[in-house]
């Protein structure tokens, strides 16, 4: 079976700073893949290349049998909107919108009519333990509540791949674990592949498989989680 999404020998430099130096990484359909590594190792850059946000200087990015690094910006943008979902460290909700409108936003941007988009957003409140919060704005939500809204926004279009960059990084560990449990359960329920960037082994433990990025190169660890394995495997 070929992977759903794959980076092959990807290289990318920001000016004189090499961020990726031949990174290869693949995720199968339905898999939860954690990407770990030290600060500055290139994790976010690799995620941005996989998601078609950045175009690598060299190497290839494939999604669902298509080479996406060769698509122009308009087509990559359409792909991100139609096939991918995103969750970032600080939720990044739109402060002027209610929680319900924030969840519905990717559908609205994709041309779904307002009533239909809000109807799609509503079940997420019960699913993520957020009942009664639909009309709140982001300033009236706790960090954990806001991140669950961001998670719902990332999944509401039923994306093929959810890209999550340090989704628990701004939360305390208990709240972070709740968000991870909800994220993995919701993704599995709808068959969404998850590429999860984290530097926390406790967060990576929710994944089916782990990869480590070190100095701009990725290596996949064997399935399953064992404390300390990342440190032992890295040369
Ligand atoms: N927009 C940018 N402009 C210049 N350099 C950048 C930019 N983004 C990242 N870099 C550099 O590229 C390298 C990889 O950064 P990246 O953000 O991918 O690492 P990371 O592993 O995700 O780090 P962290 O865990 O701290 O978020 C670093 O040396 C970083 O300073």
TrEMBL record:
One of its GO terms (molecular function) is ATP binding. Residues 5-233 form the ABC transporter domain. Keywords: ATP-binding, Nucleotide-binding, Transport. Coiled coil: none annotated. CDD domains: ABC_MJ0796_LolCDE_FtsE. It comes from the Bacteria. InterPro entries: AAA+_ATPase (IPR003593), ABC_transporter-like_ATP-bd (IPR003439), ABC_transporter-like_CS (IPR017871), ABC_transpr_LolD-like (IPR015854), MacB-like_ATP-bd (IPR017911), P-loop_NTPase (IPR027417). This is ABC transporter ATP-binding protein. It comes from Kitasatospora purpeofusca.
């Amino acid at each position: 079976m070929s992977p759903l999404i794959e980076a092959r020998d990807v290289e990318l430099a920001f000016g004189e700073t090499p961020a990726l130096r031949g990174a290869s990484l693949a995720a199968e359909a339905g898999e939860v893949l954690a990407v770990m590594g030290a600060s500055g190792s290139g994790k976010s850059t690799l995620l941005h290349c996989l998601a078609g946000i950045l175009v690598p200087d060299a190497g290839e990015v494939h999604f669902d049998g298509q080479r996406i690094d060769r698509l122009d910006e308009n087509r990559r943008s359409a792909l991100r909107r139609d096939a991918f979902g995103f969750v970032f460290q600080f939720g990044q909700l739109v402060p002027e919108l209610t929680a319900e409108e924030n969840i519905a936003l990717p559908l609205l941007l994709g041309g779904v009519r307002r009533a239909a988009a809000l109807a799609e957003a509503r079940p997420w409140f019960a699913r993520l333990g957020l009942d009664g919060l639909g009309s709140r704005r982001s300033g009236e939500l706790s960090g954990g509540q806001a991140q669950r809204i961001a998670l719902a926004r990332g999944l509401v279009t039923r994306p093929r791949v959810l890209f999550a960059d340090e989704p628990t990084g701004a939360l305390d560990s208990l709240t972070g674990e709740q968000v991870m449990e909800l994220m993995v359960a919701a993704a599995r329920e709808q068959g969404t592949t998850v590429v999860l960037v984290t530097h926390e082994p406790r967060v990576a433990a929710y994944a089916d498989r782990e990869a480590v990025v070190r100095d701009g190169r990725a290596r996949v660890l064997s399935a399953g989680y064992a404390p300390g394995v990342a440190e032992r495997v890295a040369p």
